[in-house]
Structures are given as structure tokens and as C-alpha cells.
Amino acid sequence: xSGDEENSSTDHAGVRFPPPLxxxxxxxxxxxxxxxxxxxxxxxxxxxxxxxxxxxxxxxxMIASAPRHRRAGTNIEPWKPTTAIIDDGIYGYSRxxxxxxxxxxxxxxxxxxSSIAALVLLVPCLIxxxxxxxxxxxxxxxxxxxxxxxxxxxxxxxxx
Length: 160
Prior knowledge:
The chain has 160 residues and is an all-alpha fold.
């Protein structure tokens, strides 16, 4: 294995399971348990409107976040090397806007389906994201970028 290959195989946060699946699996499990959609109906108008608002905000946040990785020339996947700290735009307000966006879309879908089970499962889902994904990413970024990341971390909140 060449030095570059060896570095690329260890130059990442150590997150091996895709974060979108960490959100999707409990959401689908919760919807399967008590969703009005699974029962063949619809949630109340209020629940559907609230769900639509959460989902829309999440999608807008995702659209504002994801392309910034390409523009900065860094990877969005946490199992690939990070080559730059993105600290402008939406990243000037949240260090993890994509995870926040996924949580908002999840919440919106759970509300729109009036699934209490899905909402309850969001709690362990967020714990896994915080500890397994964000925790590993923070350790990796501190190690890789040192003081520059520590200053960014001190200036910008983890979620909102």
C-alpha cells in the first residue's frame, strides 16, 4: 500500500455507517408501528401542516449546506477525508447543518404521519448521531486542523 493509499484509509472520522440511514431506519420503524399512512389514512390537517413546515425547513437547510462541500473541495461523506473547514454561510451558524436538516425532515415526516413512535425513536437516533457520528467527527477535525478547528468550534454551536 502506498503512503497516499494508507493516509486515505486512515484520514477520516471513522464513521462507517451512513448517517442518512441512521435517521431512515428508526423513522421507518416508527412509521410502521403507528403511522396514519400505514393505516391507510391521513393525519389531521394541523399535523400535516406542521410536518410540512419542518420538512420544508430541513430541505432548505440541506440545499444550503450540501453544495458548500463541493465548492470548498471537501468530502461530504464522513468516511472520506475532510480537506477543509467550512465556516461560512450556514456553517457560520451550525457546525452540523446537514444533520440538523435530516433531523428536521425526520420530524416533519413523523408529524405529517402522526407517528408518536417515530417521534420517540428520534431521541435514540439523535443520541447515536451525536455520539457515534458528530463525536468522532469532532475528534478527527481537532486532530487534523488543530487550533483552526478549535476556534471554529468555540465560535459556532454544534446544532443551532
